[in-house]
Input
Amino acid sequence: MSALPTPRRLENIQTDRGSLPVYATGTVEQPWESYTATDHDVWRRLYARQREILPGRACDAFLRAQDTMGMTPDRIPKFSDLNAALGAATGWQIVGVEGLLPELDFFTHLAHRRFPVSWWIRRPDQIDYIEEPDLFHDLFGHVPLLMDPLFADYLEAYGKGGVKAHAIGPDALMQLARLYWYTVEFGLIRQPDGLRIYGAGIVSSKGESIHCLESAAPNRIGFDLERVMRTRYRIDTFQKTYFVIDSFEQLMDATRPDFTPIYARLAGQDTIPAGSVLPTDHVFQRGSGEGWANGGDV
Ligand code: PHE
Ligand code: FE
Output
């Protein structure tokens, strides 16, 4: 990944911690003409493979949005085309980036309804797994739900919360990162017809799309804000625990309060290992733990 340019200060936003600087960094024009036939073919194969397994697994809002926003199945979509649909639906925009951004830059983009998308796509030998978020993960996984008005509001609020947490300190940032991980990346939602996926890290992975719903190994536990913010996670294996929301309204309502006192309270409490089940949990499934990697829960 190439080095990012020095952040340029754009403006300040007002928060209850005072006026905070806003930066713009590293956003790039999507070099669409430079994609090779191999790049388009990787997109086409991944798109077809996921769309084959996601009906009945991904939540209705995700599938509906992906259908209506005009993602081309056979070639890498143009960000400008998707932005027209996103802009009309919720006012979100996607911006091209080289890779992961510094935390404050990432939060600042979200706070302004801009979602950073890696412009490059994985190689054919990385179809099943890639460590860094590439275009397929970002675009296929994250962007459809930006069409959903409630989820769109949640992610903007998350970005604003991130700017604030960044000013509070590393513990607050860690707690907020866990919330992102267990909702935006690996969240499950309860639909009338059963549990469904909304997390981008799941819908962009064939293995985890099946595992998260059908395997006996992981825990599936009802969402509880502070419980989630205390739960450690691993980034290198399937999750040991998935948290289930009832609706995006529930997520909005739970995250609306000021987190400042929550951060302070949680700082005095132990973190929870990724695979633990607590007596207070609302358990949908207690995982068998089969195949879990031992130790190393971050
Ligand atoms: N309400 C949170 C705060 O005051 C911000 C937030 C909103 C965080 C939504 C996450 C998700 O910090
Ligand atoms: Fe992601």
The mean pLDDT is 92. The first strand starts at residue 8 and ends at 15. The pocket of phenylalanine (ligand 1) is lined by residues 154, 157-158, 161, 164, 179, 255-259 (CB under 6 Å). The radius of gyration is 19 Å.
